[in-house]
Amino acid sequence: MRTSFQSVAVPALGGFGLRTVAPLLLLCTAVLFPANAEDTCTACHDQGQKLAKSAHSSLACSTCHVKHDDYPHPAKIPKPVCTDCHTQQGADYELSVHGQAAKKGAAAPDCSMCHGPAHETLNTKVAAFRTTVIDTCAACHTDVVDQYRKSVHGKALAAGIMQAPLCTDCHGEHRILSHSNDESKVSNNNIRDTCGNCHGNVPLSSKFGLPADRLTSFDSSFHGLAAKAGNETVANCASCHGVHNILPSSDPQSSINPKNLAHTCGKCHQGAGQRFAITPVHLNEGQSEAPVVRMVRQFYLLVIPLTIGLMLMHNGGDWLRKLIALRFLRRPAALAAKSSTFREIRMLPFERVQHAVLVLSFAALVWTGFALKYPGQWWARPLLLWESRGPVREIAHRVAACVFIAISVTHLISLIINRKLRNHWKLMWPKPADMTEAAANFSYNVGLRQVRPKRSAHGYMEKMEYWAVVWGAIVMAASGIMLWANNLMLRLLPKTWLDVATSVHFYEAVLATLAIIVWHLYSVIFDPDVYPLDTAWLTGVSVKEHETEHE
Fold first, then answer.
1. What element of type H or E holds 544?
2. Shortest CA distance to 274 belongs to which of 263, 286, 288, 284?
3. What is the rounded distance in angstroms from the CA atom of residue 434 to the CA atom of residue 428?
4. In this structure, what are the phi and psi dihedrals at residue 34, rounded to the nearest 5 degrees?
5. What CA–CA distance (Å, rounded) separates 401 from 365?
6. Half-sphere exposure (CA, 13 Å, Cβ side) for 80?
7. Any idea where the domains of the chain sit in the sequence?
8. How many CB atoms lie within 10 A of CB 220?
9. What is the widest separation between alpha-carbon atoms in the chain?
């Protein structure tokens, strides 16, 4: 029950007037009737009505005001400090750009400026508070807020969409750090995740009709992969879309408007011209990719399983047949007599050098190439140890590519100028009989025929592998050079060509790697005829059984 002492007539007693007696009676009332203590405070202090509407409405006066029950109130009592309760928020503020500025004596916002006076503190969980954030920040950041109000985010918020991001969603609330700070939410390292809070949110994207593939398409792009590996200079969301002035692509002032892409992308890709406007930048498999890119992808998704599947069937059947013959069956004497062992020259000295360099460069290309595509995998981590100092994977990959191309060109030149090498190479030239031999051996390996057919010393297996390497070297070199000289390509060709080159380069690498593992390693290691290792790459001589005369 509230007591009003303005209507109570108190006679003057011994020189004590109303102003002296009333507070004493109030104090006695607060002691005798603690339930009315808050009403007692409001009898003199009008903050009570304001407090009832604030976020602190559930707090008693004594929570913040010490010695409030002493009267007269002691002089020089320190004012309540917000951080006594809001410890974490205070610690974050001390680290923020605002807190650091305040320490230096500069004008900087404090708790009351953003949240209101202590007795009128706004509830941050209501929609009304979100609408005030922009005005609060505008008190200092006028130009930035003006840009925001014109952006897609600002217009959405003005239209009543409370999920639209505003200052605190991107920059943080109390721990607002400079964008150059690696821990800042808007630093180059973290801006992808900050934007992804909305643009990677499937329910939110579905509710407001936002493209749902922006985050995934960025992650799979060159920019996204480089950013994931820690590259701080590669383009991110803000590099293309802007920071506060984010506008739809249909707006002539937008940085991603087709007419402005040359300037926007030209910041990194000098002289790229208008080619960027021809095809979509965000590519997602099966959705926003160009038709020719889709055709390339579908081609490889058919060819890779079919090719590797046939290889597995061929070699698996061959291994099983030989295992049964060696371990469980006695080979007929006639078959043993028919078989002959050759100590043939498989690789001349110069060819062995070429082979060694080719193997090393190919292995380096596979490791560094897939590390560029999948930087989060455990086998890619050693290459990331020095990534902060420079693009280690990129440099290593390009050095290996140069070595690979150089050894391929050397092989071609050697065939032209050296007759001995050229005559030896002629053994790898395809013949019509190779197809018949391949079909017969495949049928035997998968159990479609019972009699083991003949196989030449330089037969379809060696020839298929050799010409696959030739084809792969041409395709990988051509597509790799296009990707390496991307700025030049973008000046000369539409961006679709680079998208095709990217797709071809990746899928061809997958096919080549699997073919080496399934086809080549079987013939030189796991084939029971040569196990544990065919040493022809060291000695040049191969000891292997064939059921036909040496070519």
1. strand 541-546
2. 263
3. 11
4. -60, -25
5. 7
6. 17
7. 5-80, 82-187, 209-288, 291-546
8. 17
9. 140
Phi, psi dihedral angles at 224 (to 5 degrees): -65, -40
Could you give the angle at which helices 495-515 and 349-373 cross, rounded to 10 degrees? 120
Q: Which amino acid is present at 298?
A: Q
Q: Are the beta carbons of 69 and 30 closer than 8 angstroms?
A: yes
Separation between Cα atoms, residue 261 and residue 241, nearest integer Å: 10
Q: Verify cis geometry, omega within 30 degrees of 0, for the bond prior to 72.
A: yes
Q: What distance in Å separates the CA atoms of residue 510 and residue 508, rounded to the nearest whole number?
A: 5
Q: Which of 64, 67, 1, 60 is nearest to 29 (CA)?
A: 1
Burial of 194 (0-12, 13-18, 19+ CB in 10 A): buried
DSSP state string for 295-349: HHHHHHHHHHHHHHHHHHHHHHHHHHHHHHHHHT-PPPHHHHHH-EEEEEE-S-H
Place of tokens 């579908």: 298
As given in the structure block, the two tokens for residue 545 are 């059984």
Q: Which residues contact 249 (CB under 8 A, 6 or more apart)?
A: 256, 257, 258
Question: Rounded to 10 degrees, what is the CA torsion of 467, 470, 475, 477?
Answer: 170
* Residue written as token pair 């047949």: 321
The pair of three-digit structure tokens given for residue 43, joined into one six-digit string: 């009898």
Which H/E stretch holds residue 406? helix 392-417
- For residues 477 and 405, the answer to whether their CB atoms sit within 8 Å is yes
Structure tokens at 313: 């069937």
Q: What is the pTM of this model?
A: 0.71
Distance of CA 265 to the CA centre of its chain: 20
- Smallest CA-to-CA distance from 221 within 519, 502, 536 is with 502
Q: Which CATH fold would you assign to the domain 291-546?
A: Fumarate Reductase Cytochrome B subunit (1.20.950)
Mind listing the pLDDT tens digit of every residue in the chain (551 residues)?
343 333 344 444 444 454 555 555 545 554 544 445 556 677 787 777 788 888 888 888 878 887 667 777 777 777 788 888 899 999 999 999 999 999 998 888 988 888 888 888 888 888 888 888 999 999 999 999 999 999 999 999 999 898 999 999 999 999 999 999 989 999 988 999 999 999 988 888 888 888 888 888 888 888 888 887 777 788 899 999 999 999 998 999 999 888 888 888 888 887 666 665 556 677 776 666 788 989 999 999 999 999 999 999 999 999 999 988 887 775 544 444 444 455 667 889 999 999 999 999 999 999 999 999 998 899 998 988 887 777 889 999 999 999 999 999 999 999 999 999 999 999 999 999 999 999 999 999 999 998 889 888 788 999 999 999 999 999 999 999 999 998 888 888 888 898 899 999 999 999 999 999 999 999 999 999 888 998 889 988 876 554 443 33
Tokens standing for 312? 């597995």
CA-to-CA distance for 257 and 550, rounded, in angstroms? 67
